[in-house]
Write a structure and sequence with these properties.
The protein contains 14 helices and 17 strands. It has helices at residues 4-9, 36-49, 59-78, 94-109, 128-137, 157-160, 182-191, 211-214, 239-244, 279-295, 297-316, 345-354, 367-372, 389-406, and strands spanning 17-18, 21-22, 24-25, 88-91, 115-119, 140-144, 165-171, 195-199, 218-222, 233-237, 255-258, 263-265, 321-324, 335-340, 357-358, 360-362, 378-382. 47% of the residues are buried. It binds pyridoxal-5'-phosphate. Pyridoxal-5'-phosphate is lined by residues 29-30, 93-95, 123, 125-126, 171, 175, 199, 201-202, 222.
């Protein structure tokens, strides 16, 4: 494990107060805070070698290009891609990465009657792009349901994934519930000649992720959820799939030869990086990966499991609290979604904020899941490397204050 107090010192924002109280930042599933090492890397780029990449041959352009491409290599190592830099496309975020696949792959390879298998607990980012392309191509969406503990219903896998399935698109870890058995899904998808895309937005930042071991065809994730800046995300894909896919966006940098009526494309991954990319943020994502690798992803996972286990224990001791998702920390990342009696989660979040405690309260961009859970919304505390047990205690005390303020009743939230 690592020294959490030492880690906390790297995060300037954790020194600030909110409403006169020390900030307790528990909204890490939405976005994480950034250490000085990451902030400094961004400033250094702009102060020292800001230039456009892949085109200039002056020193600054070469330095910026080298730094940008070095991050591709870091990502290869971080997720253990067996295919090298050709398998890594930089996008703005997870959402753009999934849209890239749905559009570029879907437009070419989907046909009427084909099926795309999702789960009821997907983030809208992994639903809407598939809805759009399915409508265009006459394909059908099928959804795997969850059981009472919020785990995917395994008995449905073989019912829903079959010869008509062309794509299985599923979160590696849900932003509301827990970790999904994605290896099993990958095996079944491949048995039927289908592909599998993993939404890694909530897994890659929080645990060792090995795309080779998971045997996925695509994996999408966002740098801003793993200490990096907003604006830099990743699509991992097998290069032969990228080769076969048409471009997603057209423009500069993604072409080989341009003629008046038609053109040919640059090799992958450049074919999918049209225009000036988010150079500064990709380079800075490299500093975030360095930071996480120095801690060790096994240690990141162990720390989060410890905090999550403690949070589950403290919260489940409050009779008014309903916790969503499995109670076994092995099946969770550092996300605890809950409701507090009959208080609307927006009100819970607002009262917690007056105590300096930042949690998310919403449908978490998972409206089908909220309907399945029969709730309009939930509160969500989500942990990262800098959170402590004392902060879980602060959450619980602030919740109890909220309970006193609203005279909490033990009743479910109405839909
Ligand atoms: C599981 C999951 N998928 C996708 C996303 C979308 O990420 P982004 O907004 O960075 O594209 C999120 C963000 O919360 C998420 O939690």
């Amino acid at each position: 494990m690592f020294d959490v107090e030492a880690v906390r010192k790297d995060f300037p924002i954790l020194q600030r107060q909110v409403h006169g109280k020390p900030l307790v930042y528990l909204d890490n599933a939405a976005t994480t805070q950034k250490p000085s090492q990451v902030i400094d890397a961004l400033v250094h780029y702009y102060e020292y070698y800001n230039a456009n990449i892949h085109r200039g041959i002056h020193t600054l352009a070469e330095e910026a290009t080298t730094a940008y491409e070095a991050v591709r290599d870091k990502v290869v190592r971080f997720i253990n891609s067996p295919y090298g830099p050709q398998s890594i496309v930089f996008t703005r975020n997870t959402t753009e990465a999934i849209n890239l696949v749905a559009n570029a792959w879907g437009r070419k390879f989907l046909n009427p009657g084909d099926e795309i298998v999702l789960t009821i607990s997907e983030h809208h980012s992994n639903i809407i792009p598939w809805q759009l392309i399915a409508k265009e191509k006459g394909a059908t969406l099928r959804y795997i349901d969850i059981d009472d503990e919020g785990r995917l219903r395994r008995e449905q896998f073989a019912e829903l994934i079959g010869p008509k399935t062309k794509m299985v698109a599923v979160a590696h870890a849900s932003n509301v519930l827990g970790i999904n058995p994605v290896r099993e899904l990958a095996a079944l998808a491949h048995e039927h000649g289908a592909l599998i895309l993993l939404d890694g937005a909530q897994s890659v930042p929080h645990m060792p992720v090995d795309v080779s071991d998971l045997d996925c065809d695509f994996m999408a994730f966002s740098g801003h959820k793993m200490l990096g800046p907003t604006g830099a995300g990743v699509l991992y894909a097998r290069p032969e799939l990228l080769d076969a896919m048409p471009p997603f966006l057209g423009g500069g940098s993604m072409i080989s030869r341009v003629q008046l009526e038609e053109s040919t494309w640059a090799d992958v991954p450049q074919k999918f990086e049209a225009g000036t990319p988010d150079i500064a943020d990709v380079i800075t994502l490299g500093a975030a990966i360095d930071y996480l690798e120095a801690l060790g992803m096994d240690n990141v996972r162990a720390h989060e499991q410890m905090i999550t286990g403690y949070a589950l224990q403290r919260l489940s001791a409050l009779p008014e609290v309903t916790i969503y998702g499995p109670m076994n920390v092995e099946q969770r990342i550092g996300v605890v979604s809950f409701n507090y009696g009959d208080i609307h989660p927006h009100d819970v979040s607002q009262v917690l904020d007056t105590y300096g405690v930042a949690v998310r309260a919403s449908h978490h961009c998972a409206q089908p899941l909220m309907r399945r859970l029969d709730t309009a919304a939930t509160a969500r505390a989500s942990f990262y490397i800098y959170n402590t047990k004392a902060e879980v205690d602060a959450l619980v005390s602030a919740l109890q204050e909220a309970g006193r303020y609203f005279a909490v009743q033990q009743a479910p939230i109405a839909r």
